[in-house]
Amino acid sequence: MTARDIEPPLAEPDVGTRDDTARPASAKRRWWTLWAVSAAQLLVVLDGTIVNIALPSAQSALGMSDASRQWAITAYALAFGGLLLIGGRISGSLGHRRTFVIGLSGFAASSALGGAAVNPEMLFGARALQGAFAAALAPAGLSLLTTTFTEPRERGRAFGVFAAVGAAGSALGLVTGGLLTEYASWRWCLYINVPVALIAVLGTTFVPPDRPLRGDGRLDIPGALLSAAGFAAVAYAFNEAEPLGWGSPRVLSLMAAGVLLLAGFAVVEVRASRPLLPIRLLLHRARAGALLSITLMFVAMFGFYLFMSYYTQTVLGYSPVQAGLTLIINALAALLGSTFIAGKLHGRVAPAALILPGLIAAAVGMFILTRLTPQSTDVLPLHLVPALVLTGVGLGCVIPPTAGLATAGVTGHDIGAASAAYNASQQLGAALGTALLNTIAAGAAATYPASARNATSTAASVHGYTTALTVGFGILLVAACVTAPLIMTRTARGTRRRGQDERS
């Protein structure tokens, strides 16, 4: 391996071709691609939170035990995270559009199956199927965007919309889940996916066709098994850390097994002739920086979402729907950051000029919430709104350039692999953030009464939340410091130079 293999290119190269003689028609079809991919991204993110709100009603209706109900969430997360790299490889072999349609159709069918569940096992199986089809859908969608939008300004707008939909999905899931559960049925939290998926499938008829890549089509079976088992073990360990604690033998065993399996996966990929995830993709400095940035951003942000859900309902007394509506502020701010800031500046400034300020803005937003006390007044205008706006704008500024860097300059099977690695980074970050910051909050709240006189349960809860958010604040600052040397590379200079050429 040479230095050229691990250094980023001078600029994000085109990964597709463009026929300027047919520009109006091709432009229209490109934007249809964006809307179809955005609808699919909404489904994938939405299902990470919408079922959480419906779970108590589903538990009562299906007779789930307290010990087993978590599998309605865990089954989706394990299948999605564990199969992402395989989904990326399949996307390259079958063709991104074909894989995208298969993923959408399967997601719709498994959602309908889950909505019609008559027992817990049927619901858990349907959720696992949703995760499996999402693992094919997500990398195929990002690959379609990468290969369809090659002109810098259009790519910036496309990634901006894609990021806005992803950032808004979690908040929208909470609101939609609350409304559907309260006024319809918990089953509609799954049925709602069907019409959205079918509309996206219809939209794919306008998506320019792509061809499967040439080759023998063989799957790296050892790599596939090791990656699926490794990612699933790590994700399950994060999930179990919430109720059991990080020192639990089960958690430690799962973490050790996951790390060993992923280490074995890395060894296999170095030697494989057709690796599932070519290691050279991770040795690319700018791409590694983008993956690290988005992982740490999701660690902090999903802890933040957890805080917002708990604090607004347990301390401020909001209903689930009101708590979800509060998060809409964050979603709108993310829309602003991703479309009007990151989208418009894509190709005109270096990616680092968006990623680093985005991380810092989100960190400042979390720092505002660390100043909360049980006696704080005017919490919504003085604390929550500024924090929601800053974290939303920060997230919106980070997702588009990291998605662009993660998939820039790759061709062939590497496009699907890079897209899958980016989605896997988000999933692992979200799982780790939820488990880590929830554990920190619970531990701080439990020890608070011993260190404070006449401590109330509300004071202990607020102390736990602010302690966890202080850790989230630190994670974002560390992310900015660690990733800066990786993303401030020749890619940044080449991108800036290209933007100057376009304006001249």
Features of this protein?
504 residues; mainly alpha; Growth Hormone, Chain: A; 3 domains; 19 helices; disordered N terminus
Chain-wise SSE layout:
Layout (H helix, E strand, L loop, with lengths): L2 H4 L16 H24 L3 H13 L8 H24 L1 H20 L4 H29 L3 H32 L4 H4 L1 H11 L17 H24 L4 H23 L7 H5 L1 H31 L4 H26 L6 H18 L9 H29 L5 H39 L5 H31 L2 H14 L1
Describe the protein.
With 504 residues, the protein is mainly α. It folds into three domains: 25-207, MFS general substrate transporter like domains (Growth Hormone, Chain: A); 221-276; 284-499, MFS general substrate transporter like domains (Growth Hormone, Chain: A). It is 80% helix and 0% strand. The protein has helices at 3-6, 23-46, 50-62, 71-94, 96-115, 120-148, 152-183, 188-191, 193-203, 221-244, 249-271, 279-283, 285-315, 320-345, 352-369, 379-407, 413-451, 457-487, 490-503. α4 runs antiparallel to α10, α13 packs antiparallel against α14 and α17 packs antiparallel against α18. The protein is globular and about 70 Å long.
